[in-house]
Amino acid sequence: MSNPLLTPTDLPAFSKIEPQYIEPAIKQLIEENRATVEHLLKQPHFTWENFILPLAEAGDRLSKVWSPISHLNSVKNSPELREAYQACLPLLAEYGTWVGQHQGLYEAYLQLKNSPEFANYSQAQKRPLKIVYVISNYPVFPCRRKNKNAMAKSWRVYPNSPPNSAITC
């Protein structure tokens, strides 16, 4: 039987979500998202269409799978569901740390912000790129090598943080 969490739907299929499907789905999506990031970073030139949109779509897919799981854990908790949910928290935390510390993503965002195309972007498109630029100047910015361990530790301490979409890096 195929994993219903990996079948795209407009609305979550809560009645089909079983604990045995949760961890395999999250592992698969994290693996796919990592591959997407690495593939997109091989491009010689980044644009909104060839970089930001695919990253956002990958992050959205992970969020659309994790959100109903998290919701079920809150409203229909069972020992099996709790075990599957808890097994995924470190996976999501590690993935979020990886995204947040990815030097290549940081450099790609800055390249986009400093590109001639940036002037033609809408305010909604400029906003995430400006945010990356602003936070990159904070002393605790995770892409600064000396602070990577602190960020990794914070993800372990606060594992219920959202799994992060690469666009929020």
From TrEMBL:
<dbReference type="GO" id="GO:0006508">
    <property type="term" value="P:proteolysis"/>
</dbReference>
<dbReference type="GO" id="GO:0006518">
    <property type="term" value="P:peptide metabolic process"/>
</dbReference>
<protein>
    <submittedName>
        <fullName>Oligopeptidase A</fullName>
        <ecNumber>3.4.24.70</ecNumber>
    </submittedName>
</protein>
<dbReference type="InterPro" id="IPR045666">
    <property type="entry name" value="OpdA_N"/>
</dbReference>
<dbReference type="GO" id="GO:0004222">
    <property type="term" value="F:metalloendopeptidase activity"/>
</dbReference>
<keyword id="KW-0378">Hydrolase</keyword>
<dbReference type="InterPro" id="IPR045090">
    <property type="entry name" value="Pept_M3A_M3B"/>
</dbReference>
<feature type="domain" description="Oligopeptidase A N-terminal">
    <location>
        <begin position="26"/>
        <end position="127"/>
    </location>
</feature>
<dbReference type="Pfam" id="PF19310">
    <property type="entry name" value="TOP_N"/>
</dbReference>
